[in-house]
Automatic annotation (TrEMBL):
Coiled coil: none annotated. This is Fumarylacetoacetate hydrolase family protein. InterPro entries: Fumarylacetoacetase-like_C, Fumarylacetoacetase_C_sf. Gene3D superfamilies: Fumarylacetoacetase-like, C-terminal domain. The keyword Cytoplasm does not apply. Keywords: Hydrolase, Metal-binding. It comes from the Bacteria. One of its GO terms (molecular function) is acetylpyruvate hydrolase activity. SUPFAM superfamilies: FAH (SSF56529).
């Protein structure tokens, strides 16, 4: 038995729809500016440039239904995204084989301290301070591929207090999921337990304490999160 200097924390995991088992989490990769309209609203050219990624921590994924308003910020934005959970990995995965590595899908939010992210961008620094903070990725239950297939199109939307903020379609992704997996696997060794957040449509904006966010993607269980 391994002896630790202090008891290690429980490994992070995600709930699975209709099951008592849980999905163990390893890494969280996020693709930036993967919807053309969102790239434009953030001041960037929507042309198909090579994809880029940033990371969140696996324990940033939160399944509680609450989002504690974070410290050291006055401008927290919502970003609704399709979360992809891998059941297998590898290096240099081909686009043809990429979807065979997917275990399931869920609705997720990439919450962003936009003011801190903007300051990091201006200084040419990494984004983690704006992206990888505690509870920064609320996420719904995972649905296995065997139940929902591979959603390549369908509405993706988010309301705040019943008012639509974001509305798009999964088919508007600039880089499709097989391309995302193949590209990531050139730079990282992917593995079972990895989660990929696939980008957000336009309409990102701020939330305040007391707001109720409702995120939905056709074919998946919706996600309701209250800012506390």
């Amino acid at each position: 038995m391994t002896a630790y200097v202090f008891p290690p924390p429980a490994p992070p995991s995600a709930p699975v729809a209709g099951a008592d088992t849980r999905f163990p989490l390893r890494r969280v990769y996020c693709i930036g500016r993967n919807y053309a309209a969102h790239a434009i609203e953030m001041g960037h050219d929507p042309d198909r440039e090579p994809p880029f990624f940033f990371q969140k921590n696996p324990d940033n994924l939160d399944f509680s239904g609450g989002f504690p308003y974070p410290a050291e910020t006055a401008d927290v934005h919502h970003e609704v995204e399709l979360a992809v959970a891998l059941g297998a990995g590898g290096r240099n995965i081909s686009e043809t084989d990429a979807l065979a590595h997917v275990w399931g899908y869920a609705v997720a939010l990439d919450m962003t301290r936009r003011d801190l992210q903007a300051a990091a961008k201006a200084a040419g620094r990494p984004w983690e301070i704006g992206k990888a903070f505690e509870h920064s990725a609320p996420m719904g239950q995972l649905h296995p591929v065997t139940a929902v297939g591979h959603p390549a199109q369908g509405a993706i939307r988010l309301t705040v207090n019943g008012v639509i903020r974001q509305s798009g379609d999964l088919n508007q992704m600039i880089w499709k999921l097989p391309e995302i997996i193949a590209h990531l696997s050139r730079f990282f060794v992917l593995a079972a337990g990895d989660v990929i957040l696939t980008g957000t449509p336009s309409g990102v904006g701020p939330v305040q304490r007391g707001d109720v966010m409702e995120a939905a993607i056709d074919g998946l269980a919706p996600l309701t999160v209250t800012v506390v």
